[in-house]
Amino acid sequence: MIKNSKIIKLPHSVVHYYTKGEGTGILFLHGTNSDGESSFGHIVSEFSEERTVIIPDYAGCGKSTLPQGEIAVERLAEQVAEIIKDSSKAPVDIVGTSIGAVVAAVVAARYPELVRKLVLTAPWATSQDPRHQFIFQTWLKLEMNSPDDAMAFSLSHVLSPEFLMSLGDEKIKQICNKPSAKDIDKRIKLGLDIDICDLLSHIDKPTLVIGLTFDTLIPLYQVERVHQSIKGSKYAEIMSGHAVQIENPKDWVACVKNFL
Fold it and tell me: Residues 236-242: what's their mean pLDDT?
């Protein structure tokens, strides 16, 4: 099945996306330290037989660039909205993970005509939480001063202890030696300054919020707050660390499919 790739030039940035398959659109939004292909390339075939799968690079990841000026979640939502419009598949289902889930929620609140259903995995409503600030500030300091240690730190928070142990020493070292995604410091800073509490109450699309049992980056209590803030939303929990599409893709894909 052919993948169609496209670059869109916006007034303030450039975004990239590819599509695969035919049918109702389903768009996947990646997190802070990845791009569309590395996050979701391995699960595209699970959906592309019956759907048009849309995989963007946004927020400066992959083949995209950051919006000019101070990065804000509203600008990232604008990037995603333009991708949906360009794909000619609106309204689409949006599946977001981590900061991608935050952006997905903003898209649903600000551009409701573009969204059919919403799946938010490990989202959070506000960064004004002492623990969240501690984790993200530590991550940012390490990223600025010791990138190898930053990767080790983030790895310990995005994978469950059991899964991380199963990788073995050599694999863990290989991962830690990989460079972080470009401009990650700016996205971590964004993660320190999220507040979408007011927007969540405006979401009127069918929404599934997914918490991850062993997630220490965005713990369950933060995810549950999002669920409680979206009227009529459903909640599910998957046994996994933060990077569920890597650690437990089978259960995650099944959960998404069952809702959509």
Answer: 98
The whole-angstrom separation of Cα 26 and Cα 187 is 24
> What is the chain's alpha carbon radius of gyration, rounded to the nearest angstrom?
17
70, pLDDT greater than 80: no
CA atoms within 13 A on the CB side of 67: 17
Residues 6+ apart with CB under 8 A from 222: 123, 124, 125, 129, 132
Q: Which domains does the chain have, with CATH numbers?
A: 3-126+195-259 (3.40.50.1820)
In angstroms, rounded to a whole number, what is the distance separating the alpha carbons of residues 173 and 146?
A: 15
User: Which of 231, 243, 237 lies closest to 209, judged by CA?
Assistant: 237
The answer on pLDDT for 1 being more than 60 is no
The position carrying tokens 């929990």 is: 237
Candidates 258, 238, 257; CA nearest to 45 is 257
Q: What distance, in Å, lies between the first and last C-alpha atoms of the chain?
A: 23
Q: Which residue has the tokens 């949906």?
A: 84
114 DSSP 8-state letter: G
Q: List helix spans (H) across 63-219.
A: 73-87, 99-110, 130-145, 147-158, 161-176, 184-191, 197-200
